[in-house]
């Protein structure tokens, strides 16, 4: 099992300061290193820190002394976390710091999840030029993609959605996948668990969301129902 790591780029270059640039969350440290190189090559952009731990990243983003100007997060993180989980937990507390999602999959695969969770856009890991353009756009207060809201609107919307903090990381992942229309058997394959385990996650999520049916749970989760 890989031990979560944080690399503080400010400490490394002797220029650590509050709100000092872009933070990167990716469970693959080599990918994070590659993204750091892309960002470091661009004028006006630099990396504040990188992390392989979703939980530690949330804590750092919510702490003023370690909060970056922008968080760049992978959407597929493992260990019971998704990029949507990270976005949601941060956006419920902050209406300022922008979040840009990144993925190795086609961006449409995760775009809805990222938007619902309060991110300001999503880009492909394969397109370096687009990554830099998206970073600059979002840092200036814009959004990258039609589905996305700016930080203020996203914060208001997310805080009026059901209390997602009640759900565990895996329950959150299941609800996000259900919201995309995946069937139980497909979710089981995606999460590498049994179908009965997925059904257990669904049952717990329904109870926590106060939903009497799966349809109602999904509607509450996506904010499409006031019930």
TrEMBL record:
SMART domains recorded: HTH_LUXR (SM00421), REC (SM00448)
GO MF, any single term: DNA binding
A matching Pfam family: Response_reg
All residue ranges annotated as the HTH luxR-type domain in the record: 160-225
Residues annotated as domain Response regulatory: 21-140
Taxonomy, superkingdom: Bacteria
Alphabetical UniProt keywords: DNA-binding, Phosphoprotein
UniProt keyword Phosphoprotein, yes or no: yes
GO biological process: phosphorelay signal transduction system; regulation of DNA-templated transcription
Modified residues (4-aspartylphosphate): 74
Keyword RNA-binding in annotation: no
Name of the protein described by the UniProt record: DNA-binding response regulator
Organism: Bifidobacterium callitrichos
């Amino acid at each position: 099992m890989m031990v979560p790591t944080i690399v503080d780029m400010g400490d490394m270059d002797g220029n650590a300061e509050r709100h000092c640039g872009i933070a990167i969350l990716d469970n693959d440290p080599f990918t994070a290193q590659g993204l750091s190189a892309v960002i470091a090559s661009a004028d006006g952009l630099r990396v504040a820190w990188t992390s392989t731990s979703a939980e530690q990243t949330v804590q750092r983003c919510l702490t003023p002394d370690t909060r970056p100007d922008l968080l760049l997060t992978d959407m597929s993180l493992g260990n019971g976390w998704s990029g949507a989980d990270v976005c949601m937990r941060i956006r419920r507390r902050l209406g300022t710091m922008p979040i840009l999602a990144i993925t190795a999959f086609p961006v449409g695969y995760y775009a809805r999840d990222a938007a619902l969770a309060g991110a300001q856009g999503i880009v492909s890991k394969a397109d370096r030029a687009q990554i830099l353009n998206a970073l600059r756009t979002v840092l200036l207060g814009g959004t990258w993609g039609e589905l996305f809201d700016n930080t203020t609107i996203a914060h208001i919307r997310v805080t009026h959605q059901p209390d997602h903090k009640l759900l565990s990381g895996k329950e959150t992942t299941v609800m996000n996948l259900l919201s995309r229309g995946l069937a139980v058997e497909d979710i089981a394959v995606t999460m590498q668990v049994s179908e009965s385990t997925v059904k257990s996650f669904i049952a717990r999520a329904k109870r926590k969301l106060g939903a009497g049916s799966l349809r109602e749970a999904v509607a509450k989760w996506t904010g499409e129902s006031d019930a």
